[in-house]
Amino acid sequence: MTPPRFDWLAPHYAWVEAVTFGGLLQWCRTALLNDVADARRVLVLGEGDGRFLAAFLAANRAAAVDVVDASAGMIARARRRVANDGRVRWHVADGRRFEPPPGAFDLIVTNFWLDCFPAAELARLIPRIAAGMAPGGRWLVGDFALPRGGSVRRAAARAALAGMYAAFRLTTRIPAGRLADPAPALRAAGLEVVREERRLAGFLAATLWRRG
């Protein structure tokens, strides 16, 4: 189980994202920030270069955050972005191997991370991560999605995703070859959707789940 290789991408990630999607991916990461303003113990998996984290820490002054990312380069950039905020504990580690303490977190965040893994791996990974959620805990997911309805939109989304996955499998060795919907595994872990926002004709989805 080799982790994806994002170190080489770390210095270029922000401008590549800006060229391809403008500010839409950051919108997706932060669209539901107000809904998690009361979180106190937070686990962020696959944070990347720290743009979500910086926005979250500015909006939430009381939370303690554990950040897990397999890329030392991404972690280094994230630490600089948040001025090495003392509320954050950093873990350079493959999130698939990270064992959250049972019931420790009232918020888990996975922005553009679950899309790196195929459905079979999500079915194993999500219940293990969900075991780290406190009763009533929430899971914030920002990610790509297939638009609902409209065959033309869905076909366009599939074509765009095929190109993106081909590029990322070549350059970062992500294990997924196509987008897998994490919703079945999240529901099987006892979570339900409490809010969702979409943009780009439904191609980007910010979804907040809650554990019953």
Quick summary:
The chain is an alpha/beta fold and 212 residues long. 35% of the residues lie in helices and 25% in strands.
What does this structure look like?
This protein has 212 residues and is an alpha/beta fold. It has a single domain (13-211), classed as Rossmann fold (3-Layer(aba) Sandwich). It contains 7 helices and 7 strands. It has helices spanning 13-21, 24-30, 51-59, 72-81, 119-130, 151-172, 183-188, and strands spanning 41-45, 64-69, 88-92, 105-111, 133-144, 191-199, 204-211. Strands 3-2-1-4-5-7-6 form a 7-stranded mixed sheet. The protein starts with 12 loop residues before the first helix and ends with a strand. The mean pLDDT is 94.
Furnish the topology, listing elements before pairings.
Blueprint: H1 13-21, H2 24-30, E1 41-45, H3 51-59, E2 64-69, H4 72-81, E3 88-92, E4 105-111, H5 119-130, E5 133-144, H6 151-172, H7 183-188, E6 191-199, E7 204-211
Parallel strand pairs: 1-2, 1-4, 2-3, 4-5
Antiparallel strand pairs: 5-7, 6-7
What labels would you give this structure?
212 residues, alpha/beta, Rossmann fold, 7-stranded mixed beta sheet, 35% helix
Provide the succession of SSEs: HHEHEHEEHEHHEE
- Rg over CA atoms, rounded to whole Å, is 16 Å
Number of domains: 1
Task: Give a quick account of the main beta sheet: strands, pairing sense, barrel closure.
Answer: 7 strands, mixed
- CA(first)-CA(last) distance: 31 Å
Taken as a percent bin, the fraction of beta residues is 15-25%
Structural class: alpha/beta
Q: Look at the structure and name the CATH superfamily.
A: Vaccinia Virus protein VP39
Name given to the CATH architecture: 3-Layer(aba) Sandwich
Helix content, binned percent: 25-40%
Low-confidence stretches: none
